[in-house]
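Pinned message: reference record for DUF2971 domain-containing protein
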Amino acid sequence: MYFEGPEGFYTDDFMFHVMGIEELPSVLYQYTSVDSLEKILASHTLRFSRLDTVNDPEEATASDVPLAASSVFVSCWSGMQAEQIPMWSMYGQNFSGVRIRLPTNMFTGRKDPLVFEKGGAFIMTDSRHLITRKSPAMGADSCAIIGPNKVYYSDDPAYRNRKLVYRQAGTAHFYPYDLGMVKGAHWSYEQEWRFKIAALAFEAQFPDDEYFNKVTLDFAAYPFEAKALFIPLAPSALDELEVTLGPRADDAALKEVERVLASYAPKATLVRSQIPIR
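Predicted structure (tokens):
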């Protein structure tokens, strides 16, 4: 099932009928290091990484806009309650880190995500994030977060290398709905859900002029200045935090996690991994 045109393929119908998503998860999981856990809790923020800095170099390409991945920031999660050995190995500090669990409505304002016809789920927060670019390109100021949406896994270039700009009667329309929502099939073991922040607004309309084509769309000459955004978390969401200690974590790691939680999230729950591993 593939959609041509500016409406994109990542729609509510695609999520429900093609991907088989029955409902959005109420909690999400992230595998990380003890150091990263402390940074999250000490700052009360969640890092959104720019997609051209993540471990998949094929992320978020577009057929008509070079370096399109640099215009998208993401926070990557798992929706699987059962622990995943590959995730512990790749992201969980070689089985010695932690897995955090937070409610899906973790951002300031604690608003629940809503699924829209285009682009999937969407959340409005009570905080604003500013994305700056090299002048004279214009940045963005928003309180919107796209997601959480499940990544679609495919090797079909019709999904992975989409067109973003549609032109009509002197006007250029920018449609990044699908950008950053597809990964190659070899990543499918992750079963990833992600939050996404787009630097250029969905369905934005621009004059199809020299400024748009040679400044707005030139992400090489006029790059986005930050490589990451740090989005505030609601303190009450951190009260619901559950931390799972990695299967190879030793007593020193246990004491360090206990110290971090006592300092920054005293109401959080700490449990040990259920995976036996040497």
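Pinned by admin. Summary line: The helical segments are 12-18, 34-43, 85-91, 157-160, 210-216, 235-238, 251-264.
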